[in-house]
Automatic annotation (TrEMBL):
Belongs to the ammonia transporter channel (TC 1.A.11.2) family. The chain crosses the membrane at residues 23-45, 52-74, 115-134, 141-162, 174-197, 209-227, 281-312, 332-351, 392-417. InterPro entries: Ammonium/urea_transptr, Ammonium_transpt, Ammonium_transpt_CS, NH4_transpt_AmtB-like_dom, RhesusRHD. The lineage of its organism: Eukaryota, Viridiplantae, Streptophyta, Embryophyta, Tracheophyta. One of its GO terms (cellular component) is plasma membrane. It comes from Prunus persica. PANTHER family: AMMONIUM TRANSPORTER (PTHR43029:SF11), AMMONIUM TRANSPORTER MEP2 (PTHR43029). This is Ammonium transporter. It is found in: Cell membrane. It comes from the Eukaryota.
Amino acid sequence: MELPVNLRPDQASPEWLSKGDNAWQLTAATLVGMQSVPGLVILYGSIVKKKWAVNSAFMALYAFAAVLVCWVGWGYQMSFGDELFKFLGWPHVAMNQEYLLKQTFVGYLPNATMVYFQFVFAAITLILIAGALLGRMNFHAWMLFVPLWLTFSYTITCYSIWNPHGWLAKMGVIDYSGGFVIHLSSGVAGFTAAYWVGPRATNDRERFPPNNILLMLAGAGLLWMGWTGFNGGDPYMVSTDASLAVLNTHVCTATSLLTWLLLDIVFFGKPSVIGATQGMITGLVCITPAAGVVQGWAAMIMGVLSGSIPWYTMMVLHKKISILKHVDDTMAVFHTHAVAGSLGGILTGFFSNPKLCRIFYLVDDWQHYIGLAYGLKTGQFKAGFKQMGIQILGILFVIVVNVITTSIICFLLGRFIPLRLNEDELQIGDDAIHGEEAYALWGDGEKYDGSKHNSVYGLEEFAQVPPKAEA
């Protein structure tokens, strides 16, 4: 087959390009994107009350689209571009054709692939924040919050931890795939934003049943399986480390789910489906900073801890600590992402295997990336404790940045537009906000009409008005 005129073979497939790595990276990015659309769109739309189904799903869908435009406009370069400050890059546009076709800063990939891959991570972070705000945030305020938070919060933590020139990256912090940048950030930011937005309506906060648990499980399944790309794509190549990361991810997640399930059975007597889903999420979050740098046995231990410690903070401590009771965190992102993300970061500092770290970081550095457990085993106590200290420093940095930036954004935004819906909208939900409803069911406040609804299965017993009274 002849190449088109004016196109050289080295332009389509230059020597530095790895077709296998590039194909996997694009696939992994799409898997991560599917965690958000449709994964979290379905999960959010089904785990809330029926009257909030459309609004909750649409908050996720809007964030996905808005982040992409901001990401290629300035967000990517602020996160991975040339240094502006020690913790931030220059806000250049990342849509120049010449730039997009060049080799990226790491791996055998074009910049276009890296921009796409990092976008889906930025998008899911905002969508996770939305989980704390479901059922009461003004949608117009959310439309402004998304680009502001991406610009002034996400880029700072991303540049500091993932950019090779970031100050925490240079120190040797280990965040394999976003335990700090994504999960701890979204958990802290979501909790902080929930404080500023305020709680749901009283009747919603007291009783908030899912409108479709089976559909919720479908969304959760997409989230779990999509994590194959989430953690498997971060070596930026088709490597043995990528394979290890994928297996560790699923083993830790399954162990965490089962641990949470057993605790629910022991203490509450019933195997909760929603509880098992929470255990699944905490396992995914906990293993994320460590996925490809710990051994399988460590991943299982992390699963036990991620299925028990966040369970304890959610089921026990939440009822005892005033600030946790006061802030209305709809999807409990503080527990599932902030607590589980911090736990994962600390356990990464303890269990990280120096050999696996050198495979992932492609360096022969014996001063960094030594978990405390291996430091104690090999007599490198100082290096092990240093790594643990760097992990804790990273956690503190992410917490401080997100509390401050999220508070400033919410405070300033609230000066111009209400952060919370008004009382009428809180009572009505989707129909008042969007003029649309998720389900059109005859049994939702309507009178039974035998001419429209078949009574073969005794549906007349569900009529809102008894037949005699109706007559």
